[in-house]
Amino acid sequence: MATSCSGPHRDDLSIAFAGLAGGLLMWLLGQHTQADRPLGGAWVLLPLIVTAGLEVLRRLRPQTALLLGFLALVGDQFTSGSLATVLMFTDLVYAAVLYGSRSAADRIPVIAGLVTVTAAMGFIAWYGTSEAVFIGVVIGLVTLVPAATGALVRNHRDAAESARSQARQSIRLAEMDRAQAITAERTRMARELHDMVANRLTAIALHSTAALSLDDPGNAKSALAVIRENGVEGLSEMRRLIGLLRDRSSEADPAPVPTLDGLGALAARARANGLDVTVDDTRPPGPELPSPVDFAAYRITQESLTNALKHAAPGPVIVHLAQQDDVLTVQVSSPFADHSEQPEVPGSGAGLIGMRERVALLHGSFQAGPQVTADGRCWQVCASLPIDQPVLSTPAEGTP
After folding, report:
1. Can you name the residues that pair with 278 across neighbouring β-strands?
2. Alpha-carbon distance 131 to 137, whole Å?
């Protein structure tokens, strides 16, 4: 682990001061660890002061402090000896493993073990008595034990840091997933809101324009009646959507999901709004469509009729439904109008985007654009929806 170079740590200064003070006190009291050494008297203070000074570097330069501390410990063996010097050296060994580089932390315990075993065997061969075993144990306590302790503490610290890093990463991933989920939900709700309300507002805009331009009170009253009907139904759908947004845990009965069974009512509303709609349903009798496919087909038809109401030229609008080889085809054709001027009800393009997204969620194909037919040019929307393929995302039951 890299160490900081900003300056000595406060704890290191405290350890150095405590070690030096303890060593001086033991010297004044005449407490020594050895006798009959070449250097007596105050010589014992030299390795003590050096080791205490190296304690200041135990975090800044741990390996350098250990090397110089070992030399100071060797020098201490030629004096009467100080227990404080030995204890501070063990702390230097511990600090070198804990704060040094990873390679040093791996090497130092191995070196300490080899030194302990080699020294013990050497003293046994020299003395040949149990005293050599005691010396080996002391050497192990001074070198191997602090090195092993430092390695153990470092491993626990690294494991804790790794766990914290994984936790932070998990939090970041969870936040990313949450943001993506919010974005996806907002996109879905925007699509549903557009499909539910755009048809009503388009009819209101067109009929209000007509009402303003009519001088006949009877026709104006009829247009206002259509405006009122679309306004009330649009408001009802808006309230239902707002209720779902506010409380998804409500125990009230869920609102019915629109399906192709309601295609007749949808076409009737379109006719009331002024479209000449013909529904051509050639599907063979059989089991009901999967709910996601049925729902998507209804919304695609609804949005296509809304676009026809906004942009199509006068003429028939044909809704064609077909089912073949487990594929449902929804095709809506309307007279093509080449608008040279701004349309009365401008579009934002969100309708086509929403239809394309619905088809993509069902792994289908979607096309929309002008086509040339025997009756002339028309605007055609064609969606192919696989019935049996897996679905990436489906609307929950009771939601729009």
Report:
1. 318
2. 10
| Contact in structure between 330 and 301 (CB atoms under 8 Å) | yes
**Tokens 């009907």, residue located:** 229
Long-range Cβ contact pairs of 112-116 (< 8 A, separation 24 or more): 112/143, 112/144, 112/147, 112/148, 113/144, 113/147, 115/139, 115/143, 115/144, 116/140, 116/143, 116/144
**What's the rounded Cα separation, in Å, for the pair 378 and 165?**
60
Tens digit of pLDDT at every position of the chain (400 positions): 444 456 788 888 998 899 999 989 988 888 888 878 888 788 889 999 999 999 999 888 999 999 999 899 988 888 888 889 999 999 999 999 999 888 888 888 899 888 888 888 887 777 766 677 777 788 888 888 999 999 899 999 989 988 988 888 888 888 888 888 877 777 777 776 666 666 666 667 666 766 666 666 666 666 666 666 667 666 666 666 666 666 555 444 555 668 888 888 888 888 887 788 999 999 888 788 888 888 889 989 988 888 887 777 888 899 999 998 889 999 999 888 765 554 554 555 567 888 888 898 888 999 988 887 777 788 899 999 998 755 444 444 444 4
Q: Is 335:358 a contact under the CB 8 Å cutoff?
A: no
Q: Which residues, other chains included, contact 321 with Cβ-Cβ below 8 Å and sequence gap of 6+?
A: 260, 263, 279, 280, 281, 282, 283, 297, 328, 329, 330, 331
Residue whose entry in the numeric block shows the structure tokens 């067109």: 206
